[in-house]
MFS general substrate transporter (Massarina eburnea CBS 473.64), 485 residues
Amino acid sequence: MASNTPKPPPDEITVTINDTAGTNIDTFAEKKLLRKCDLHVLPPLFTLFLLAFLDRTNIGNAKIQGLEKDLKMHGSDYNVVLFVFFIPYIILEVPSNLVLKKLAPSRWLGSIMVLWGFATVGMGLVPSFRGLVAMRVLLGFFEAGLSPGKLFAFKSRYYKRYELQWRLTLFYTASIIAIGFGGLLAFAIGKMDGIAGYGGWRWMFIIEGLVTVVLGAISFFWIPDWPETAKFLNSNERALLIARLSADTGDAVMNRLDKSALKRIFGDVKIYLGTLMYFGIVNTGYAGSFFIPTIIREMGFTASAAQVRSIPIFVVSAITAIIAAWITDRLRHRYFFCIFGLIISSIGYILLLNQEHLSTGVKYFALFLIVPGGYITQPITLVWMSNLVSGHYKRSVSSAMQVGFGNAGGIVASNIFLANQAPRYPVGYGVSLGMLWICGAACTAMFWLVRRENGLRERGERDHRLSEVDADNLGDDHPHFRLTT
């Protein structure tokens, strides 16, 4: 007989955690919670990432608007300006993640956003090449806390493993949009050339930097903090959030950073393979953002036309990245999507390595393979790594290591497209193609390692870990945890 007792509204549902493997969760309440998290977590972080990438990569547009001429730059000076950004950016990735653990995300991310905004303004005011180098170092210093902080907060505290890919890819579409929109913005702001004695490229840095400063100040009130203190959640929603994440990770926790935990973290080959994956693919992402406007201009277009023609490349990249992300989350599989993106991008590089036989239209088409292919693979490598580790501390360290040391690929990208090799860039395209398959080799090694490890766990050959002293702090080494392929 049906009960006449009215069902409590979703915000009053009590969630009971029965054990670490399962929960009694109302599906309607869970969907409502996900929508609420998406509404409060995604927009501010999307905006943050968009502005960070815009401020980081708009130098590519400044280059074709006269930056080198105005600052009397010669030879490899432009490559140096790109390179120096990555020195503090790489060194400070891991420490910044540890700082974030001690501070509210709104305070930390809002603060660094204001500071890198001022550094961007400074890039528009510098009188010399040396001043530009100094501002790029400061930009790398302040932006170092963004990527690992974003990944750590995003993955470990709000979403389950297979809810992550399309949401993270949404962040990466912010970077894609930043490059495409940056070209359009540079085209528009370029009309200000000569106002107050400043070149158009200077106004681009000044205006974009000031926008970042203003939004950084707003972020103190806009970016949500950890779920335990997030104001947009009520007590029952917090309980539900904890319950569903507990069900996702089971007993695979790491809440103590002791000697044994450090050994497990730094002895885990998955972290090093994940870093190598990112190192190989991030080169294509940075090469595209730094040099696409220049490459298109050297096809015979004006600076303004080159900026406008770069936009469709990044629109296509955003669409393909989101579609691939949605499918890979639905299938709960990462490897073959990584390889697919690498193949697409490789075809583009091979075409440009043989460009003396190609028309301008085919060379332009090759860019529609290189950039979208790279943006299919790049965010998947990050989420795959995140899926493969479990435990509070291990997630924090692994995400920072992957993004931090993996960004050494950006140093490579900064130094392989040499002015004296324009317009063919054989070293740039050749090295980039090789780095794609460094990523491919690491992805393949990861795939077979994970398959083997899951097989060992299925056969009970890792159950001995349950009797070890740190059995309650194993993280993803727990024999019940299954690794994502």
The beta strands are 16-19, 22-24.
